[in-house]
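Example record

The entry below shows one chain as it appears in the dataset: sequence first, then structure tokens.
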Amino acid sequence: MTAQPPAPGAAVGATPLDCVLGLLRAIEAGGGAAEIGPFLAEGYVLTEAPHLLAPAGARRTRAEALAGAEASGQVVSGQRFDVRRTTCEAGRVVLEAEWTATLLMDLRHWDAGEVIRARLAAVFEVRDGRIVSQDSYDCYYTPA
């Protein structure tokens, strides 16, 4: 198996945590597929546990995740991740964060213009400077 080069913009020898935080910063900057793609390995898989917006959970390939990143600019703006804690072991990064974004369209529990907020935990596997998998556990706060 041939190792992939580190993600563009990542420092040579960057840690798995650097890779994960780089992905979050690219999302916060409004990055679409072109900006997020370099952080994801070709075989990347995102698995979401059931949550308010996906009651059955979801599993997305790299292509589906990139398409979602590209479309996210039509749904939200101003995404922010307030990272609370991280734990790293070898190529595994566990991250807890508060996520916020402003909605650009109405969703089931929120109206356009409202700030949507979630508490999240995610487990990332990183190999050769790229994220190969992400298991996300998102808990969305609903308006009072």
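Notes for this example: The first helix runs from residue 16 to 28. Residues 1-7 have pLDDT under 50 and may be disordered.
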